[in-house]
Automatic annotation (TrEMBL):
This is Phenylacetaldehyde dehydrogenase. Residues 30-493 form the Aldehyde dehydrogenase domain. The active site is at 270. It comes from Xenorhabdus doucetiae. The keyword Oxidoreductase applies. Its EC number is 1.2.1.39. Belongs to the aldehyde dehydrogenase family.
Amino acid sequence: MNEINLLASVTTFLQRSHGHYINGVAVPGQENETFSVINPASGEALATVNQGGESEINQAMQAASAAFHGVWAQTSPAERGNCLNRLADLLQKNGEELAQLESLCSGKPIQLSRMLDVGASADYLRYFAGWSTKITGETLNVSLPSLKGEKYSAFTYRDPIGVVVGIIPWNFSIMIAIWKLGAALACGCTIVLKPSEYTPLTLLRVAELAKEAGIPDGVINIVNGSGARTGSSLINHPQCAKVTFTGSVPTGISVGKLALEQGLKRTTLELGGKNAAAFLSDMTVEQMVDGILEAGYLYQGQICAAAERFYIPSVHMDAVLTLLSERLSAMKIGYPLDESTEMGPLANKAHYQKILSLFEKARQEGSEIVYGGHALEGPGFFVAPTIIKAKSVEDTLMKEETFGPIGTFLSYDDEETLISLMNATPFGLSASLWTNNLSKAMRMTPRIEAGIVWINMHTFLDPAVPFGGSKSSGIGREFGSAFIEHYTELKSVMMRY
Ligand code: TXE
């Protein structure tokens, strides 16, 4: 056991009363309507949070709008970048506090919280900071003929889109919010973030650090509350110009529909999927198992880009599943604040119940549960990492996103069939192909329907590489230069002289 001691600042923070963060100050919210934050490793309440009502929603949207038209519009691109860089510094300076809060609320192993919610978040902010001074339009050659010797000239601007509403899931309560916030602020937008009701605390602390970093009041606001009520009201609000959402496919579709109906508000939807990882027969069994663990079991499989469908050459299937079972049984499952923990609990009770019902479904359908497939004893929402051997592509677990530590396996014999198996899904967020034959991989990659295809790797995201879903896995791209299109409105200017 390497269980770490909670920092005094974490204990003090948890004891505070929690609500919202609007226009540079903590706002208590509706004290008669609260919800509890549950530690998924123990099932016990960590804190209570006051719901955001119409009053908080209005205050936050007005503050973001005033900051957009006033102070942030007057802030130079260079200073916007400096603000993001200073926030990155403060995330790192306060990193242990943030990582502990994230692990307590989400069940994420502490090493991952340190690496991703703190370390990677700082890297993403610095990447976006660099873009703030490089957002430009273009000069265009007008194509019309000149009739009387007149001349034409044209160019484009990229105007910031306005107030962005960011709706955040529970799996990376800091990092995914930083993706939205960094993109919005670099482009000159202001933002109102609604964290998941399961992980509402970390962003309240990040907002305080943003103030310390010199980000003007009103530029970043946090409103806590339920999705159906607070989330929808934020999207409905007349000051909302754009919605950026990460979460499940059904909720993403409702969010997208509402945003369209409320005046064609722009949307970026980064949704889930049923991502495939395919191993070609030149890989060794050990290489395949290493790849499967990387692709499917990190952070209890609660990563939208993680693989859930695994395609293995028939000749290797038994050996792969035997070695994978051995590796899973050696995995250290435990308390997220223990530094040696490799796998923690599922993030919340609803998700735990969903995973248990999927185990049941697999049994009813006669899929073979090779390893795991059950809850683990003790308090908290722990389940065994699980291997399921599917009968066919029709098994529920080959089709429905589990978002849990469950790999579902199907064998194949020829590589032509493999491509159609990989594409036999309405989703297309990510996919991976594992082979030492790069020439073959390069020929197969264009035929794989996914927003990102990894070769000999899976789940790794990079701020320089666009990320987002094809097919039903989303609309729009985060990162690279691609995000700029989604946070700015292209304005054309044409003149005759
Ligand atoms: O996600 P939701 P939930 C999957 C995972 C999980 C399931 C449900 O399988 O078991 O989704 O989890 C807000 N208008 N993923 O319920 O509903 C909500 O408050 C506006 C995959 O947590 O997608 C939260 O802030 N907002 C996923 C956010 O949307 C609404 C990550 C995400 O909630 C809303 C998380 C509404 N009508 C869960 N309803 C991924 N692929 O990354 C909810 N919200």
